[in-house]
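Example record used in the benchmark description.
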Amino acid sequence: MRPTPLRRSDTAHVLPYDRDQLLTRQSVPRHLFTDGTGDHSRSSITATGEVHGNVAQQPKDPLMSTTASGPSASHPAAPASITREERKVLAGTLVGTTIEWYDFFIYAQAAGLVLSAQYFGPLASDNPALGQIMAWASLGISFLFRPLGAIIAGHLGDRIGRKKMLVLTLILMGAATSLIGLLPNYAMIGVGAPILLTLLRILQGFSAGGEWGGAALLSVEHAPISKRGIFGAYPQIGVPVGMILATGVIWILTTVLSPEQFASFGWRIPFLFSVVLVLVGYYIRRQVEESPVFAELAERKAESSAPLGTLFKKNTKEVVLSALIFIGNNAVGYMIIAFFAAYASRPIEDGGSVGLDRAPVLLATTLASFGWLIFTMWGGALSDRLGRVRTFQIGYILLIVWLIPTFLMIDMANIWAYGIGIFVLTVGMGLSYGPMSAMYAEMFPAQVRYSGVSIGYALGAILGGAFAPTIAETLLAETGKSISIAIYMIIVCIISLIGVSLVKETKGVDLGITKHTS
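Model output (structure tokens):
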């Protein structure tokens, strides 16, 4: 007897699915249930939830498991083409993360170029280095609030949906960034200026804490099982694209404006420009449908009644490992995002040791960031073939090997050496960042996935990049040698290499709900 075909009314009782078995609750493309020969009778799902034919059998009870093996050979082939909805999802995650990180990186760039003199310098007028350290600290302090943003956004995202939280975090980030562009400096309102600046920076950090997890899950949960790595790379490249925009805008302004004009009003323009980008991102994200795995969760709300409590009860190990995996990439990332340009372009008379002109340095940093973009996409795609863990390991080994040469090339005070050094560094950056969305999504069960990936990512950012520029500036002031910074970066990359090596390969793990209570 042939099994009873799935009916729309049976949706709530279907056993969990992965992306190749079911794209959404509402529609199931017929080609996903074939064996590649066009015979639709060989694979079907019964009304009782029983899987027949070529659809891969799910693990018996992997509700809280993160060590499932890769996909079975019996999985149907992923569709060759990307659907219209998938394109909208990828565009929505890319545009949204680009805007969020543009806002974040504008502050990072300004912290190294102007914020010290305008907001923190007067507090340490007899010690310029201390003023710069305080500016870097204001960059880092917001990271302390990213876990709070991740907890709240993750908790709500697991309940009301990834898309709604993404729109909210986008608006919060844009509002904070625009207000920084309007904020009076120390000369106008005194000590209230750095205090208000820090509060707005905290709001940025709170927003960023909830942004990445939702974007990563929207892309990965919409992906064919064999393309999770490349789909997940789209929100990842929002970082280098956001950096290209941020650094490129500042480069244009420093080129067309005099140093006095840039210090007076020019630095505020990139912050105010965020309003336009937020409106664009809001429109695009409103067009994206909710992810299919969350749609199934919405039908069985009882299973996600306390996702945050369940997360720390069942998945503490995964939260810790995801944090450790990220610290090396994030620390080196903030060297590229903020520290390198400020270090290389600081005038000799102001205590700098390289003394390159600011405009060429910003241009070289912008161009090198294209390498970060390219290799991040490559890292995502490579992880679909080699696996997430192996791709991460290659990336971190490359970073460890190349960090000291990077600082030596920057210290040559040659713009070509500066650009090449950073560009080569982005190879390791891309390979240790591109697979992250897919790997993190596969490490956590659906009920706590948003909370898990967001909190792990936020904790990794605190331990990695939050105070990396501050520590680097302090090491430079104490030792007078940039190699001390390279050694510090190597240590955190080794920690991340160990962390990722402790994770069992996740590629192909089922992302659906694999258990439900009647």
